[in-house]
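hey m, so remember when u said the tokens were messed up on ur end? i reran from scratch. heres the input so u can diff it against urs
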Amino acid sequence: MERRASPSPAVTLGEDGFALLLVALMVVLVTAFLLDRALRARTEYRQAANAAGDVRARAAAAAGVQHAISRLDAMIGRQPAARAGDGVATMMLADEGLRADLASVPLAPGVRYGVAVEDVASRLSVNDAGDDDLRRLFLALGAGFREADVAAQSVLDWRDADELHRGQGAEWDDWYRHQPVPVHPRNAPFQSVAELRQVRGMERLFARAAPYLTVAASVRVNVNTAPEPVLRSLPGLDGESIALLLGRRAGGRPVRDVFELQSQLSVRSRTTLQAAMAEFSSRAAFDSNLLEVVSTGAVSGLPFTRTVRARVARSGMEVQVVRIFEE
């Protein structure tokens, strides 16, 4: 006869085993609950700490702006009466300790700010510059002629009010609407230097050009504070003129006016400047009363900083805020 295998005995869970399983399940659930609460509490703590740190960093940055204004007021007050007509840019060049005093200032334990003060007129205005000015700047920054020409003309097309593109420029219908990410030209003045990223031809040039540009309008380049690439954007200045300006600046002796500049040049360089005198005079200045104060607040242990920018101008014997904005 065929032998049948006897069935395996059923595994049964007694009352003690069931209770033990229930306890284990409860431990798992409670542990998961407590872990979730701990993670939530940790996240909320970090958010609260970051929020508090953000307030402190912003306050530090604002304090830096006020410190800079106070320092500039004191600088004006120390100037001899004979130089009362000097702009703040010239005064700033003569004040060797200004930048060092503001570079890194402790405000409270773990909180500090650093302030940079720049002459707005040391940069080329992207809203005032002509295509020749922009082309010269881009060439000075290493661009080829065609690359510089396309970028310069496209910048002017972006900011002008019409839809007619220049020979090497770009407008909505002929260029921007056909791009992978279409963007319509503003057809108005640039609102920020970062906006240049969207302009045809600026893709490779932006990082090099941005430090030398501003959107401030009606600003003539101050030849006593502008860096070399910006000086090269001006008509009438050759290598000799630029070397003279930079050398006088390094020696703390800014050039007072165009007549003084001409008197220091060779016949060849003087002739070059005189040939472009009308255009040079409309583009260049030898002083400035408009500064940009950039104050950055930082709190130890936080992965971010906060920056406040202020445009300030001399008014009589004090400095007044023209515009202030946060980043």
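this time it looks ok to me. The longest strand covers residues 305-315. if urs says something different then somethings off w ur setup not the seq
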